[in-house]
Specification:
Protein name: Translation initiation factor 1A
Helix content: 10-25%
Family: Belongs to the eIF-1A family.
Shape: globular
Mean pLDDT: 83
GO molecular function, one term: translation initiation factor activity
Largest sheet: 5 strands, mixed, barrel
Pfam families: eIF-1a (PF01176)
Keywords: Initiation factor, Protein biosynthesis
CATH architecture: Beta Barrel
């Protein structure tokens, strides 16, 4: 039983220096999605092969992306958060 002391908190994967939080806004097909990043930029993100069959990504999901160095409007998805993990990040103030 939890008495509200935060004991249900999980240690979640946080962004590295070159990664930002993003929300999936649109499915584009061909392993690509449109994401709105926390830095205010809307990017086309690529779902890497290692995630295609194992991790289902849908509109509204919270993901970690790493923007491309040479093309800022594109990015690669690095991680997808479960809905309860996304709620925890919002409660802790990491994302709006």
């Amino acid at each position: 039983m939890s008495d509200g002391d935060g004991s249900g908190r999980k240690n979640l994967r946080m962004p590295d220096d070159d990664e930002v939080f993003a929300e999936v806004t649109e499915m584009l097909g061909a392993n690509r999605v449109k994401v709105r990043c926390n830095d205010g930029v809307e990017r086309t993100a690529r779902i890497p092969g290692r995630m295609q069959k194992r991790t289902w990504i849908r509109e509204g999901d919270l993901v970690l992306v790493s923007p491309w160095d040479w093309q800022d409007e594109k990015a690669d998805i690095e991680h997808r958060y479960e809905s309860q993990d996304a709620d925890q990040l919002r409660e802790e103030g990491h994302i709006a």
